[in-house]
Amino acid sequence: MSGAPARHGGAGEGAARTSPLRALAELRFRLTLRRLRGRSGVPEIVARAVLLVMALPAGAAFALLAGTGAFQAVRGRGMPPALAAAALFFGVWQTWTVVAVTLADRESFDLRRLLVYPVPPAHAFAYEMAASYLGDPFALFWSLLLLGAFVGAAAARPGPWILLLALTHLLFAAGVVALVALLQEVLARLLRGRQARVLGVAAVYVGLVALLAWGSSAGHRALLRSLAALSSARWVAYPAALAAEAGAALYAGRAMRAIPWLAAQGVTAAATAWCAYRLALSDTRSGVEGGAARGASGGSGWRLPGRLGPILEKELKVLLRHPLVAVLILVVPAIAGVVGWRALPFIPAEAGEVVRALPLFGFALYAQLVTQAFWLNAFGWDRGGARLWFLVPLDPAEVLRAKNAATSLLSLAIFAASAAALFAAGGPPPAWAMAAALALHLGIGPWYRAAGNVVSILNPAPAVHSLQRGGNLAPASSLAGLAIVSAGAALFAPPVLLALRLDQPWLLVVAWAGLGLVGAAVRRAVLPASARLLSRRREALLAAVAGDGT
Amino acid sequence: MLAIETQGLTRWFDGKAAVTDLNLAVPEGAFYGFLGPNGAGKSTTIKMLTGLLEPSAGRACVLGVELGSDPLTVKRQVGVVPDGLGLFERLSGSEQLRIHGQLYGLPRAEAARRADELLGVLELSDQAGKLVGEYSHGMRKKLALGCALIHAPRLLFLDEPFEGIDALAVAGIRRLLVGLVGRGAVTIFLTSHVLEMVERLVTHVGIIHQGRLVVQGALEEVRGSGTLEELFIRTVGEERAVPLGLSWLGEGPPR
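The joint structure predicted for all components is written out below.
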């Protein structure tokens, strides 16, 4: 009813009535502006600009590749149309969904806060979805890629059919955004109860062990054949499958055949968004925060020794009750299983043992990467509880040590599960590769934690214990994380080149273990300075995570 | 002996004074009510005395120990219910209490025993396994009070401890606190806006206004023949009248 005159009061007769959604948009804009003008505004602006500068060329390069592929497919050169469309949509769908579910770091409104206003919840949810899309740098990247493919296809054969292709891309993007929202709601709901979470993790491990046992008795090839049969279940990835069918028909010049698939895209995207909305609404109205863990037992606690024991117990319990952790423990090994199944068999033996072990090394690093929201923002999760670290008679170094130990145990657990899944699907690696991967994972950890402590203290951000509502790292911390992860990877990369050149895989174990020992010594040496920094910066830290102002 | 003694304690925020030249003298064993209107500097003072904020100037001595020189010794002996509380939302109530006790050096079993006892006294036993994030505001306040007590401190800082707690629970907590002071077990430094209750509880009072301490002493002495509320209004300004206007109230919301 935007533009209708107000019947009463303050706005005055005849004055234009404000649309609630416009007011929400203004609220969001002003909050962002206020944040950017605040204490951490300049680093945030710089970080966003740098991220954009980095994302745009990468996105443009991939867009160019996608455009070239689409151009050739439409012209009848290169890949067949069906394969080109499938590669584009399944590729984008897989990465978009996985990144959004495991590394969600988007800005969005909390539906619960909006219910108090006279805004239809469905409108607020639609607004939230749109805002999450616009505020997500990864979504910008995927959109650029889709745009590149669209431009390539349109340039290959200009004509009215490109309107249908544009619609295919738009419905695909809408379908993926809706599916990500639905997956986050479903995962948060499933993983809310501790028992459900434990059962879920147990089911994954039992499944992996069963696969291993069956694979060893029926033979590796039989296992691969049975898994390949699962590819017929591609409709599970329905936004990609439907878009691929529509895209293939359009690339091949059969526009009429694309229309039913387009209709199906529209219907499924709307149905998915509706399901996500209903789940979000019922969750919001239930009064339980998304992802809240329930039924935490009391008892006399864990028998962890020393002064660090109670802090470590607190840190581990908080981590284990976070829905993102449960998702990581389930999803990352699942990705490892897919890599073991689809990628490992295609690496030829002639490539050498080191190259064949690269996926394992990748997961050794990835397990550190996916936990960065916890070690780059160690105090953001404590919120008001962070006050306690400065009220109790504790050396701040002990707090940092316990926080580092907890996140290290978490990433180690994710890595162990991923390695197990990789072995189960792709066969066990040689002993040296396992030792090297462990040395890489454990060796790079102290470097990351040492740097992460400084970032956590200098740039804390209040984090939310929910899958649906992201924003767990400040942009400057995201950028710092990118730099830290890259620097760590660069530090640990030269031994790979040396091992390849000398054909001595065991070099990796020695080199990475050595770098790890140096890292542990560095972390130990800088810990007192980090602790002093923590003590000095306590006011700014509490202002950021606990809202303590003047 | 003084449990808290400050000299010239001052705190500035962005060039604006929140607390100026504060000279507190809180006798050991006292139940000290620290009063003042909103924004007067009460919470800032407690934050400085508990180590959450660094003073811009001045010194503070808590339980005979210079706060700036040996903060860990001071922290071991005090319990705090801070403004905004200091609870971890993803711990259960009993975990929060037990781990809190352990952080003060209590053995695990003893911390668990005291946690159970405190949960009973604070009427939270039924909710012991529930996550703190799911507690109501009043339940959190009670739990924070339990955390402040679990290591048997010699000095308690309570920032608005009764805000949001039901009347029955307030009565129970009041009895508990008065009993503790009566036994000489603890000194209490409390802020509250509920003047009637403060008047029934405290032995000493200090009133802070616009960052400056304007009244301090034993309750009987500073109150004289009037009430604490009268003293408060006399000290910090006449009762503010609700401004007239707001003529649009009653017209109903826009349709």
